[in-house]
Amino acid sequence: RFDRLRAEQELREARGLATSAAVELAEARAGLVAMLPRDVSVGRVPARTDLDEPPVLPDALMTRAVAGRAELRALQRSAERADFEAEAARRSRLPAPSVFGGLKRADDGAGRVRGGVFGLSVSVPLFDSGSREAARWGAERARVEAERASIEHQIRVEITRTSEALALRQSALADDAPAAADELIQIAEVAYREGEMGVLELLDAFRTAARARARSLELQRDARLAQIALERAVGDVLWP
Predict the structure, then answer these.
(1) Could you tell me how many helices (H) and strands (E) the chain has, helices first?
(2) Is the CB of residue 65 less than 8 Å from the CB of residue 55?
(3) Are 215 and 176 in contact (CB under 8 A)?
């Protein structure tokens, strides 16, 4: 009777843990659905099989980040605009000829007369050489380049940090032995049936195996989160 009561108590505790896990899963699913369009449904997320796949070297990831990060592309466009504006300002000191032409109609006593009109005008800047405007756009280019260098440094640091974290997570995942939990349960069940251990030792073996399985899932989760962190640092999908 003691064995049965003790096993039932352990079963109730296990069901309570399963209920808590189901509640957390439902809350996470609801939070995910709230961020998606209405016509998108969330199904079961399949297990990843590429958690132990090593990432690309940090230098290659940095090159990919420079090409993929939106803020860096925007700064590149700003730098190009500053160059164009500065060049246009420097050209404003040169004479700017313009040619115009058209048709002209006039009425006289004999009727309406039509003819062509052509002209040439040249504007010569005497007091505005465009140097001030060119200097302003040159300073804007320097500011953009400084901001770009700062962001690239931050990205490089983030890529290095997340790459090292991912390597540690993958190393811990490689050292995990989830099959040992099943073997432990089999040995404990055989020993209990043969009378070599009591129910407390059997339940302790089940608890140990459950903790091992939970730890294995946590290692997989941490490895996947490390992959996602590295993808965010790069600004592109690395493990599709």
Answers:
(1) 6, 2
(2) no
(3) yes
3-state secondary structure of 227: helix
What are the structural domains of the chain?
Answer: 1-45 (no CATH), 46-234 (1.20.1600.10)
pLDDT given at position 157: 92
The angle that helices 131-175 and 199-234 make with each other, rounded to 10 degrees, is: 160
Q: Could you read off the pLDDT of 10-40 as tens digits, one per residue?
A: 788 888 888 988 898 888 888 878 888 887 7
Q: How many Cα atoms occupy the beta-carbon half-sphere of 196 within 13 Å?
A: 6
Q: Of 149, 159, 154, 153, which Cα lies nearest the Cα of 76?
A: 149
Query: H helices within 116-240, ranges in order?
Result: 131-175, 179-193, 199-234
- Mean pLDDT for all residues in the chain: 83
